[in-house]
């Protein structure tokens, strides 16, 4: 992975024993790992921030979670570090097993993303997985932030285009009205401005039997005829037409704003396809990821049912009649593969297509998913375009 675009892990600690316990564990999976010993002067242990960083996972590795909490508050209040904390980041807590209750309370309050015990480390793989999930969450947050900025730019561009269109319509209406006024003023009384002798000669050729007095009366009658009332009606009709055209641009603006808030920037063919109210069950033990996936699907007309494990997903599927299941591979109670096998044995669920959600990118895991009965798989973290494209493809195939 390119170090310039990977998340940096900053481990705050106060003992070499902590560094020894973590260094071999972290270096195998993470490329940017820095250790900050708070026993040193701040300018020394904060020296790692001088380098370029794409994003951060701050790991607070102290026996007592209270020490971590105090340090976190102190760093946040340090004005010189304000630019650092404006970069996308998360805070992870490592503590002694005797302080797990306090660690849980701090995480529940949102002070830290999650926690694990470091004295002792019960399961190296579980700790690695927890840190990997935290990094994935940072990546998802950054992807959403990027999409949000793109949508803001798109919305701003749309607003400017619509404003320019309204200005052009208003200008065209004003110009048309002026031209009609000019035509009316020139045309009205046009007969009265005609040269009498030339008109008389023309009339005499057409009606040679008319006397001079009769021709004079005919001229007076022609002078009294005015077409301006009809032209006035035409002018009013044109003005009304341009006004209606200008007003019609306002609903377009509202529609564009509404679309811009759905979270999808590009507009491939499936993005404009009208949707029925289709139910999808999402099962993953990471609540943040579930919320992100739901936020991508619900604005497109889908009804989303959520579950934190395979057993709960099966129960939700039995009562909600979904058209699709999105299952994470690694879940407690009943994992994704076992959930597929269980669904195939239940008559009402056996034909429901399943897409697997996986953090693994190796072919062996993909093969396992497909051989177990999944229709497709999505590598986490994903984006709205990939998710919606695969969801539509499967639903269109099985609907």
TrEMBL record:
Response regulatory domain ranges (all copies): 279-395
Database matches in Pfam families: Response_reg
Protein source organism: Motilimonas cestriensis
Protein's name in the database: Response regulator
Gene3D superfamilies tied to this protein: 3.40.50.2300
PROSITE patterns: RESPONSE_REGULATORY
InterPro entries recorded: Bact_response_regulator (IPR050595), CheY-like_superfamily (IPR011006), Sig_transdc_resp-reg_receiver (IPR001789)
Residue numbers carrying 4-aspartylphosphate: 328
Keywords: Phosphoprotein
PANTHER family, per the entry: RESPONSE REGULATORY DOMAIN-CONTAINING PROTEIN (PTHR44591:SF3), STRESS RESPONSE REGULATOR PROTEIN 1 (PTHR44591)
